[in-house]
Amino acid sequence: MSLADVLARIDSDLPAATDRLMELLRIPSISTDPAYAANCDQAADWLVRDLQSNDIKAEKRATPGHPMVVGHVGDSGPHLLFYGHYDVQPVDPLELWQRAPFDPDLHETENGTIIRGRGSSDDKGQLMTFVEACRAWKAVHGTLPCRITFFFEGEEESGSPSLVPFLEAHKDELTADLALVCDTSMVSRGVPSIAAQLRGMLKDEFTIVGPRIDLHSGHYGGPGLNPLREISRIIASFHDPETGRVAVDGFYEGVHEVPAEQLRQWQNCGFDEADYLKSVGYSQPHGEQGYSTLEQQWARPTLEVNGIWGGYNGAGSKTVIPSEAHCKLTCRLVGDMDPDALRDRIRKHVEDQLSPDAKVVWDNDLEGSRASVMNIHRPEFEAARGALSDEWNREAVFTGMGGSIPVVGFFKDILGMDAMLIGYANEDDAIHSPNEKYDLNSFHKGIRSWARVLDALTRS
Amino acid sequence: MSLADVLARIDSDLPAATDRLMELLRIPSISTDPAYAANCDQAADWLVRDLQSNDIKAEKRATPGHPMVVGHVGDSGPHLLFYGHYDVQPVDPLELWQRAPFDPDLHETENGTIIRGRGSSDDKGQLMTFVEACRAWKAVHGTLPCRITFFFEGEEESGSPSLVPFLEAHKDELTADLALVCDTSMVSRGVPSIAAQLRGMLKDEFTIVGPRIDLHSGHYGGPGLNPLREISRIIASFHDPETGRVAVDGFYEGVHEVPAEQLRQWQNCGFDEADYLKSVGYSQPHGEQGYSTLEQQWARPTLEVNGIWGGYNGAGSKTVIPSEAHCKLTCRLVGDMDPDALRDRIRKHVEDQLSPDAKVVWDNDLEGSRASVMNIHRPEFEAARGALSDEWNREAVFTGMGGSIPVVGFFKDILGMDAMLIGYANEDDAIHSPNEKYDLNSFHKGIRSWARVLDALTRS
Lengths: 460, 460
Known about the structure:
homodimer, Alpha-Beta Plaits, 5-stranded antiparallel β-sheet, about 20% strand, globular, Cyt/Met_Dipeptidase (chains A, B), hydrolase (chains A, B), metal-binding (chains A, B)
């Protein structure tokens, strides 16, 4: 029996693998909204049963939040831990979906067949590429090539509050030689990519409180302090409008310039800047002046506003000066930026901007994570790069990533475990947006890729 | 039979008058929200029946929007038209109400008994002061002292779209010698007030459109244009943060300084600035520097933001760069400011601020009205001032008003009819806010005031 047999098995089993993914996609496991807690539990149960059907010792483990799924198989060879998450983003605005988000289907497009549905790309579809690779391997060989631990969480889209305590409580069980993570994109369609650095994340939320009650804008318009104007002025003050730089004092502490050699590699990694911008309706990049689009996305920090609300937003008009205005924000961190120090700086910036009679109230329930740089000098990275290049007939590249995968930092800090991030998503997958999809080709070749990577990591 | 008999009748009938008002307050006639259209109709029917019960020939008149109520009585003496509106503001945020907004009651406070409920002050309670004065007059005298037309609309809180066509179509029927309006406040508790000038109003609403779809703030944070940041910057640009002045080019065209003599009168009209500010949690006025609080409220124009929304506002966080951000705004106009010219100036200001790749979409369904100055040299004004002074044992004053009552301008422009605005609301009535109330004392002495005014205007 050979790798070719496993790949053939993957090809012939693709319709069944797709059906299994569809089952998982039908479960609305939105972790951030407590209304879907039972569905998160249901997704965890589905995964436990699916792993068990492949002779993996799998269990659902309770946490104060949504459960973890942990599975073990094998007892010789290198110990790999595969991480994915079964929870998904909220689906609003629902009216923009062309098909109900939890009624997945296969759909033909000019770029080939796609799997439509919330979580198809982030991260259920990607997670299942590894599970299906293992299923095919087992079917052909009767066993897996090494010791593998499966570790799925259900809180990735809501700040992973249970993750650190769980890792700390199960250090011995979860520490492997290397973690594999499938939650990232390819830098360009058909270019296999290993993410070599990730941005960190800081979340915060604040409310500006002005008058004691909502006011009539006739009676108080003029002398009245308006929290909507106040919050707009504060948000506008976050950035220098000329340079696009964040104007919070000390924001860039710990940010390093990208070495020239790395920049050169990025310039040749197949990233199509014009297509990346045009696909969402941009004619130019809008970030910091003096940095390329890829640098803005992978190597520069951001302070981004994700939600603003206050006052009247119904039909018609209402002549109100509201008592409160609200803002949700997230920062992306790079280099050695410290999320705790950054939170303090942003809060001080906001407090320094406040008008007399305005107050700010912070949500103290949100977390931060540092940026991560992968240890690409380990031999597994070169082995995986070769395996991916073979599958995609295209040299695999080491890329940066604009997103944040905090678990990578926790694996390193708590378990001392390096991670290797390989994903098959495309930029147009619309993750976190209406009409999320995953290319059937990503799913199929993703499964094949993992089989090749498993082979490359365990061939001695 | 004398005025004293009418006043005595008002006193003895107060419990029944209060019960009638409660009936009207129970009808949720929110005009701006189409879901309450049937309730607006119901409020109109209630008023028709109530007028008819007082031998007034009253009818509900259909419009393309909510119906008008028109009633006529008498055929000699001066012809007065009384205007009020039966529609009310929306009630959100509902959770801040101490009692359901459409379940009115009497409630004891340290400032006396109050009538609680949406519309108790604006404008159902005020409207009924005149109706009840007429009822008492009729009960005592068997007839009313002059020809009176009752004219109630149901779209005042939603821009009065049917008002101008209705006035134009019924010029002869609705043109009286003088309009009486009860929709204004007293300048301070217990100080009877006749509003001598009103600010005008301009409403507008816009959407900033950035990327074609909602984006992931990891994948696009940096190079991505964020409509939330864009709209915040634009809103912040509306005002000069140093002076509090509106920074839209040409905004102050048509604004006149208040004559020194008028300013002196205002300074002595009983307005308690500290109380006015403190009652809503302010320690200082927040409008244009160099102008008193009363000037900022009565004599200076404003550009106020009444609602902002965009992105995620649910539980937890969502790392999204939304495709759109929205803003509702209103301006208060003074002097000779032209609402149409002002709309153009504001729109140009917004368009001039737009970043590349950002678009603005305007709501073209919103209207404007000029400021109004009353003709206080007519003898009726001095007669009414005397009547009010008698009732309240306090010299009645001519005041400005921060609010806008567009019907006053339409009466003048379309019917050539002056208006006299007398109201008994207090600044703490929380109109347009949760927990709206009307002092029972305002209701009682308001009815008595109208009886005295009718007497003063018809005594010859």
